[in-house]
Specification:
Length: about 400
């Protein structure tokens, strides 16, 4: 499988798919630090440099795709910017410059005629502009006119599409429930995202990737016991990203998540050697694009470690809502103060190997790589376990039906 990646970030897709033997034909990333991560791991060029000849080329600005070289790719993957669709953003939708990049993604797909499409965004895209923005995206990909449902877009659906365009399936997936052979315990954060899978000329293959028979029986996801509350949401000074739809976020649930001003005391790492937290340990603030399963009633009871060897054991009794905040930090609060989550921990929450973003940066060695750059890169990334699950399913569908397209 040969794929092209746009809005590549630090390449969750490659982390998931390289072990499957899939190969990247190109990346497209404009941010300096994520581009440096790509250069470090994949021999890519920086956006303002000549295209790499010995690694995966980074073509930079995706709006300049008409200048890119030709490629024969099987799949195009991208998570276009979500700020214009997020409930925490300005909700400009397709009127925003970043929102329009989802149409640029489809223009790139049209140029390279990839068999498969894998696109990701926040659940807010389903309601943006009364659902019309998502309808425009689906309609352009499928080659048919689409009107938003009168009662709004549901969490999953299928678009048959024109026979020479893409057949589509979409579904909201939550990181904490997506398990694969590589991630048998999933990842300990709540991260709901809309995924659209497209296959050229055949909606059935797209549907076969996203939908499983045992997942279509109407059985609800596990819920909290009656009477259990949830932690307050945090949405102060957000700049897009994240978002859980409208189930937890409330307009007045705002706190300043700059911990230097919120809680000045900073402690060392919480003791996890014996698999226990200190009495009173609580997840207090998560503002780097993450939403962690949170234990707000830890009393030193021995429980399963949420992030092996680093994070304190957290029981999933509720959830904190969090959004991308360039100045915010992820942190854990204990009885005696607060410590921030380390880049190793935030990387593990997304499924990246330890040290993936700890690279030499601006003349400093890897062990002095700024935490803030790493937090932001992890918060803006996709979850590796979800990409791994999609890769498993796509491989299975290709093995079952073959790689030749068929008209629906």
């Amino acid at each position: 499988m040969i794929y092209g990646s746009v809005c590549s970030g630090i390449e969750a897709a490659s982390q998931a798919w390289k072990p499957r033997g899939w190969e990247a034909a190109f990346f497209s990333e404009i941010e300096k630090f994520p581009s440096a991560v790509l250069a470090h791991h994949y021999g890519s060029n920086m956006p303002d440099e000549p295209y790499s000849q010995n690694g995966v080329p980074n073509y930079g600005d995706m709006t300049k795709f008409e200048e890119w070289p030709d490629h024969a790719i099987d799949l195009l993957v991208g998570g276009t910017p979500c700020q214009d669709f997020s409930i925490a953003g300005l909700r400009k939708g397709l009127e925003g410059l970043r929102g329009q990049l989802m149409l640029t993604y489809l223009a790139i797909a049209r140029r390279y005629r990839a068999r498969w499409l894998v696109w990701e965004n926040v659940p807010g895209v389903l309601s943006s502009n009364g659902g019309q923005d998502f309808a425009s995206f689906l309609g352009l990909a499928a080659g048919v006119a689409i009107t938003p449902p009168a009662d709004g877009w549901k969490n999953a659906g299928i678009i048959k599409g024109y026979r020479n365009a893409y057949g589509l399936a979409y579904r909201v997936l939550d990181t904490q429930y997506v398990r694969t052979h590589r991630f048998p315990r999933a990842l300990p954060q709540r991260r709901r995202r809309v995924f659209v899978i497209g296959y050229l000329g055949d909606w059935r293959r797209a549907a076969a990737v996203l939908f499983e028979r045992h997942g279509l029986q109407g059985n609800p996801a596990p819920r909290r016991e009656a009477g259990k509350g949830v932690a307050p949401t945090l949405n102060a000074r957000t700049k897009g990203g994240g978002g859980l739809g409208t189930d937890l976020a409330k307009a007045n649930d705002s706190l300043d998540c700059s911990l230097e001003t919120y809680v000045p005391e900073v402690t060392g790492a919480l003791n996890t050697a014996n698999g226990k937290t200190r009495p009173g340990d609580t997840l207090q603030c998560a503002c780097s694009g993450f939403t962690l399963p949170v234990a707000f009633d830890c009393k030193g009871t021995e429980v399963q470690t949420a992030i092996d060897g680093v994070a304190p054991p957290l029981r999933s009794m509720g959830h904190l809502n969090s959004h991308q905040n360039a100045g915010g930090h992820a942190a854990i609060s204990g009885k005696f103060g607060v410590r921030r989550l380390t880049p190793i921990e935030t990387g593990r929450l997304q499924g990246f190997p330890d040290g993936h973003t700890a690279i030499p940066w601006r003349g400093k060695p890897a062990d002095q790589c700024p935490d803030g750059h790493q937090w932001k890169a992890h918060g803006n990334s996709m979850s590796v376990n979800v990409k791994d699950w999609l890769g498993e399913r796509i491989d299975a569908v290709d093995a079952l039906f073959g790689e030749e397209g068929c008209a629906a």
